Amino acid sequence: MKLWRLVVVICFLATACGGGGDTPTPDPIVESSIYEACLPEVGESTLEVVTWNIENFPMHANTADAVKEIIADTDVDVIALQEITSKSEFNALVDGLDGWSGHVEDYAGSQWVGYMYKTSEITVLTQPENLFAVSSNDDYNFAFTSARRPLYMKFQHNNGLTVSIINIHMKCCSGSEDRRRSGAVLLKDYIDTNLPNENVILLGDFNDEIVDQADNVYQNFIDDNANYKFTTMPIAQGASSGWSYPSWPSQIDQILITNELFTKATETLVLTLDNCQTTFGSQVSDHRPVMIRLNNN
């Protein structure tokens, strides 16, 4: 787990750094991460995937630097992002992180979805591409702009696990339940038809609860429990202090997997980074990241 950042020590005297005599070279000064107590453990043998609504990135002058630090410190493998509002800032973020690559959509709109991934552990097999047609009824079910259409990518982790991933940002708020429900039908039909035997992760900002008993717009996935599972369901059923959208509060950032991954998904957790950095909610995002860990045993 990457929890430490080395601070360069400049040697003004040669003898102080072992340049003369028998004076030993001092150890480098080590600075702990602000987020140390809120970070998950990660490893090279497991695949860690995160979904994160990054709230109109960048929402503050300090946002880009804070996000860069968070990504470097968490050291996960793939991040599905929602609400990117500056493509240039996103590209600068990717370029500023050693060993990372990324993709943001290039359609009209104001809130794009995108991916970032660690190139030392991830090989992209199918480049990111939008699902469903632009300016169609299908497109309307997800948002007002094409920038928020579901974004598909296929990749392989170094442990051999191959995953088809779909990043979504569903239409928000009361009054849009029918659009989210129709979008859920489209997504399930797409996976059932085009990815019937693949390892699939559907994740993102679902903008609705999955524990809603009266009118659950994602009931079609829940009813097909032989083939689909919300790994975020225990979180949604748990205490509100652990939910991904604390300002509401609610658990609307979800991770859904197909049955091919049931035995490979070992853990899903919300990264409560705001518990470690008080300015997280005002300078980074109103959503917490949500992570799933998978192995290939």
Written description of the protein model:
Helix content is 19%, strand content 30%. It is α+β, with helices and mostly antiparallel strands. It has a single domain (33-294), classed as Deoxyribonuclease I, Chain A (4-Layer Sandwich), CATH 3.60.10. The strands form three sheets. The protein has a six-stranded mixed beta sheet with strand order 5-6-4-3-14-13, with helices on one face. A six-stranded mixed beta sheet has the order 7-8-9-10-12-11, with no helix packed on it. A two-stranded antiparallel sheet has the order 1-2. It is globular and about 65 Å long. The two termini are 21 Å apart. Mean pLDDT is 87; it is low at 1-20.
Layout: helices, strands, pairs:
Elements: E1 4-7, E2 29-32, E3 47-57, H1 63-74, E4 78-84, H2 87-95, E5 100-104, E6 112-118, E7 122-130, H3 137-140, E8 151-157, E9 162-169, H4 177-194, E10 200-205, H5 219-223, E11 228-230, H6 233-236, E12 253-258, E13 265-270, H7 280-283, E14 290-294
Parallel strand pairs: 3-4, 9-10
Antiparallel strand pairs: 1-2, 3-14, 4-6, 5-6, 7-8, 8-9, 10-12, 11-12, 13-14
Helix pairs in contact: 1-2
